[in-house]
Design a protein that fits this description.
The chain has 190 residues and is of the alpha/beta class. It has helices at 6-11, 13-21, 43-53, 67-73, 78-84, 105-108, 123-130, 155-160, and strands at 2-4, 26-28, 35-37, 61-63, 74-75, 91-97, 113-117, 134-135, 137-138, 163-165, 176-179, 186-188. Helices cover 31% and strands 21% of the residues. The longest helix is centred in the first third of the chain and has 11 residues, at 43-53. The two termini are 29 Å apart.
Length: 190
Amino acid sequence: MEIVTKEEFLMQKAKYLKLISRGAVFIHPTDTIYGIGCDATSEKAVQRIRSIKHRSEMPFSVIAPSKRWIFENCDVSAEGEEWLERLPGPYTLIFKLKKESSVAAAVNLGSKTLGVRMPKHWIADVVRELGFPVVSTSANVTGEPYMTSVDDLDEGIRQKVDFAIYEGEKHGKPSTIVKLFEKEVQVVER
């Protein structure tokens, strides 16, 4: 696994965006913790993440390229619009999915919902530039502690991802989940 700093990533951004567009699986920082990501429209890349994390069940969330993308692909209620005003920020908003073809089937496993993020972090600008959603799930084997620094990254994950963007130790916690697809809005603190 190649480890690059934010500065190295940005200096060679065209190279890394091309790798992501071609199915690379990578570790990325966010405003909360480190995540494992890939092109969320690539079934093969998403399946790689499922294998790496040992996670055959439970949907993944994505970093959306824009709020417009969210409106085009998700059913956004009035409450959902209010929550969207809080983005960018440390929230994963779960909406009913309007266009199933907007993400690979392995992202949400037929759940007909999609968790979307827009972190308050420069990685959101990278996703905006890519123009497609990027899977964002915690950088850990399911059920194990999530990555806070490169020193505690699971060795199995280290061997299976293409590259990592590392910006030092993180002291955050996973994003707050807000379920906006039922009659009652449900906020799940983690």
